[in-house]
Amino acid sequence: MPTHFQGSEEERRALNAFIKLTRAAEAINDYVNAHLREYKLTVSQFGVLEVIYHLGPLQTGELGQKILKSSGNMTLVIDNLEKRGLVRRQQRADDRRCIEIHLTAAGQALIEEIMPSHVAGVVQTFSVLTPKEQQQLGTLCRRLGRQETP
Question: CATH number of the domain at 9-146, please?
C-alpha cells in the first residue's frame, strides 16, 4: 500500500520506498528466522551465537554493535543463553575488568546444527533476485545504512 501522505513528489517517492523497504525487511526477517522457533531461540540470541561462532569471544558491547542491539538488551540475551548453557562469561587474562562471552561446547554444537538451514533459507529467499540484483541491493542498502544522520 503506498503512502497516503499528500506532500511533494519527492516526499511521496521517499515514503513509498521506505514503506516497501521496511515491509520487505520484515517479511524476509520473519521467513528466514522462522526456523529459530524450533530451537527456542530469539533472533538476537541466534545473532550472538553466530557472531561468536564466526569471530570468537567478544565483550558484551562489541556483540551489541555487531547485532545492532543495546547493551541493556544484550545483558538479557546473554543471561538467557548462559542459563541454557550455550555461552559463558569469562574474564580476560590480560585485563580482568573485561568480560568476554564464549561459546560452550553445547553452543558450538547448536550453531553448527542451525547454520546450514539458516544459510539455505537466506539463499532461497534471495533467489527471486538475479545475482546482479542481489549485488545491487547490497550496494544500495550499504549506501542507505552508511549515510550520516542529520
Answer: 1.10.10.10
Q: End-to-end CA distance of the chain: give it in Å, rounded.
A: 28
How far apart (Å, rounded) are the C-alpha atoms in residues 29 and 43?
Answer: 9
Measured CA to CA, the distance from residue 108 to residue 92 in angstroms comes to 20
Alpha helices in the chain (DSSP H): 9-33, 43-55, 60-67, 71-83, 105-126, 131-146
Rounded CA gap, 77 and 48, in Å? 8
Mean pLDDT of the chain: 91
The angle that helices 43-55 and 105-126 make with each other, rounded to 10 degrees, is 110
d(CA 30, CA 24): 10
**Grid cell listed for 6:** 499528500
DSSP structure class, residue 148: P
Q: Where are the domains of the chain?
A: 9-146
- pLDDT score of 24: 94
- pLDDT tens column, 2-33: 777 888 889 989 999 999 999 999 999 999 99
Longest dimension (CA), the chain: 60
Using alpha carbons, select from 84, 55, 60, 57 the residue that is nearest to residue 72: 60
